[in-house]
Amino acid sequence: MQKDKLLKGKPVADHIYGQVSERLKILKEKGILPRLTVILVGDDPASKVYVSRKEKTCQKLGMDSETLHLPAATSQAELLQLIEKLNADRSTHGILVQLPLPSHIDEHRVLLKIDPDKDVDCFHPRNVGLLVSGKPYVLPCTPAGIVEMLKYYQIQTEGKHAVIIGRSNIVGKPMANLLMQKASAANATVTVVHSRTKNLPEFTRQADILVAAMGRPEFVKADMVKEGAVVIDVGINRKDADNEKGYVLVGDVAFDEVLPKAAGITPVPGGVGPMTIAMLMHNTLTVAARQNQIAID
């Protein structure tokens, strides 16, 4: 394996945690302890693991964390009422509703209910609009984490062609908006392709920076990638394997195939994954500081 090509998330996440720790001291000196409240509805195994990691990271950094685990049968009205209560609670700085939600709950209505000043996921329409206009309050965690990786590994984006596979509200759309802004680690020419794009490989082969975020295991093959491209793999998929777990984790990119052609590539696991929680911690600190009108930058 060509290790110099690997764009690992852990050293970048550790860099972010270092920044968070230093800025956290400013808030603590003023008697403020940032608090993140996560709402988990139901018993989705992947969501439970992810929520547990968030809680442990908060504790490790010295921030306050609360997880409210609700039954899958919780009604939409009950969930909305809980969010309204947290919105009014001055000791709760950040609110995160873990997705996906049970099918009987309208995800959009739930995200709309969260106070945008406490929206650490950047899913509220107001915060999405601020992102599009180039005046963001907080940034969506995974796309922001990718931008931090590009900065850390000194990957040039200005004037480059970035192609994003996937148009989700969580990764694809906000990633496109971040990369096209007039900002550092941005100023790129951006193309978004998706499941209805005709001749999709023709677009991906033009990419200087290719972001794969469509949730299809090992979809991106070597013949879809330009020689010397930087490949960012956002996917996390289970693939059957003859081991104790019965599966291995793979991304949306056929890693072994693409590695020889790429100038840089994120592994799965160990690539983009660590950045999502790191940026969530950054966002929790940001909202706590802003709610108390304290400058930390």
TrEMBL record:
One Pfam family matching this protein: THF_DHG_CYH_C
GO biological process terms held by the UniProt record: L-histidine biosynthetic process; methionine biosynthetic process; purine nucleotide biosynthetic process; tetrahydrofolate interconversion
CDD domains referenced in this protein's UniProt entry, alphabetically: NAD_bind_m-THF_DH_Cyclohyd (cd01080)
Domain Tetrahydrofolate dehydrogenase/cyclohydrolase NAD(P)-binding as annotated: residue spans: 140-291
Pathway: One-carbon metabolism; tetrahydrofolate interconversion
InterPro entries: Aminoacid_DH-like_N_sf, NAD(P)-bd_dom_sf, THF_DH/CycHdrlase, THF_DH/CycHdrlase_cat_dom, THF_DH/CycHdrlase_CS, THF_DH/CycHdrlase_NAD-bd_dom
Family: Belongs to the tetrahydrofolate dehydrogenase/cyclohydrolase family.
Protein name as annotated: Bifunctional protein FolD
Natural source organism: Caldithrix abyssi DSM 13497
Gene this protein is translated from: folD
